[in-house]
Amino acid sequence: MKNIVVVCGSGVATSTVVTNKIKDWLKEKGLDSNVKITQSTMMSELNNIDNYDVVVSTTTIPDAVQDKVISGLPLLTGMGSDTVLEQIGEKIKVD
């Protein structure tokens, strides 16, 4: 099971939109049964970051966790969303 956390400033508004787009894409690709998605705030998850394979963010992220982070902003704007979904797909590939 792969774990994705979607974070935004409040853990509610934009993370819900991004989470739904990721869920739709995972279902379309047949990957939805292998992935757990959590919504939260970055500050709430900072100490748990190692529990996640991917961090998708619509907010500022501390430098210490940048290697796991994918910007979720394109999923809100629609510009570059395919690239973001492909990046998520690469990070959740089963080894």
Automatic annotation (TrEMBL):
Keyword flag Transferase: yes
PTS EIIB type-2 domain: residues covered: 2-95
Record-linked Pfam families: PTS_IIB
Keywords tagged on the record: Transferase
UniProt feature coiled coil, ranges: none
Any one biological process term the GO annotation gives: phosphoenolpyruvate-dependent sugar phosphotransferase system
Annotated GO MF terms: protein-N(PI)-phosphohistidine-sugar phosphotransferase activity
UniProt keyword annotation of Transferase present: yes
Family annotation (InterPro entries): PTS_EIIB-like_sf, PTS_EIIB_2, PTS_EIIB_2/3
Annotated protein name in UniProt: Galactitol-specific PTS system IIB component
Source organism: Tetragenococcus koreensis
